[in-house]
Amino acid sequence: MPKFSGTKDDDVADYLFSAKLYFESKNIKYGADSPQQRPLSLLVANLKGPAAAWYREYLLLLRQNNFTCLEDYVSAFRHIICKVEEMSDIDKVMHFQKGLVVEIKQEVKLRQFRNTTDAISFALMYDRTHALGSRRTNSSHHVEEPTPLEIGSSRFVSREECLRSNLCFYCKEPGHRLATCPKRPARNNPRGSSHNRDDHVEVINSLQLNMVSLDAKLLPNRELLRFEGAMSGQAVQVLIDSGAERNIVRPGIAQHYVEATKVTVERFDGTTTPARTAQQCLETVCFDGRVFNDVSLIEWEV
């Protein structure tokens, strides 16, 4: 296959003529009536010097905002990056995250991925679990001016965002605080208070959803499904035990507390823990491209 560098001594017509002869000798179909991917890839792969630099320049101009969705941006990025030679994995990740919208870019940069496969997978997961509400809003309403913060049922808002924007910690809406939230159930209790429920003991037989990353050796004879997900604006790992009856969450992640209750847990070896007060909460959990609203969880240190 001939090479083309794009210098003044190179003739593009000669390059294309030599390329056609090469395609015919290898029985590679080309032209308007033939599949374009293979001959185009061969042509681009043999660009050198200034001619090859064109693809790098195009890569620098690639932006997610120029596409209707993240999936289209990823597809365009992959199409270009596979044709760029002599670029390290770190540089590829840098170019990928540089073209992302600000919110996703910050999350990808924070995790310092070493290859584009992991960076792209995380970006797609984050986009699915955090942008659903804003997509529905944008599809049904044309907003003339951008709003400082859009809150939807599938939009996660961190505690820091609530403090900055003067929002309620429970419903994420302005105008009131957690103590006077009209959407908060009447039975809500402050965190850490049992409120006359000390005589109630609930037995949790096993674990179903656990936002804590556990070593498999700690869970003998258990078949666990693991998913990367999100809850309360944080990336979490979801562990699913098909034989479980309750859901637990590591303390410090949940935001919507319902009540305090005394709980004892049956361990996998059949023994039980002493009863202690634990917080019950209702949260939205996202993983595997799905959104689960009002998931009942109990805070438990594992």
Automatic annotation (TrEMBL):
SMART domains linked: ZnF_C2HC
Coiled coil spans: none
GO molecular function: aspartic-type endopeptidase activity; nucleic acid binding; zinc ion binding
Record's keyword annotation contains Transport: no
Residues of the CCHC-type domain: 168-183
Tagged with keyword Metal-binding: yes
Matches recorded under InterPro entries: Aspartic_peptidase_AS, RTL1-rel, Znf_CCHC, Znf_CCHC_sf
Keyword vocabulary terms for this entry: Metal-binding, Zinc, Zinc-finger
Superkingdom, natural source: Eukaryota
GO biological process: proteolysis
Matching PANTHER family: LDOC1 RELATED, TRANSPOSON TY3-I GAG POLYPROTEIN
Record's protein name: CCHC-type domain-containing protein
Lineage of the organism: Eukaryota, Sar, Stramenopiles, Oomycota, Peronosporomycetes
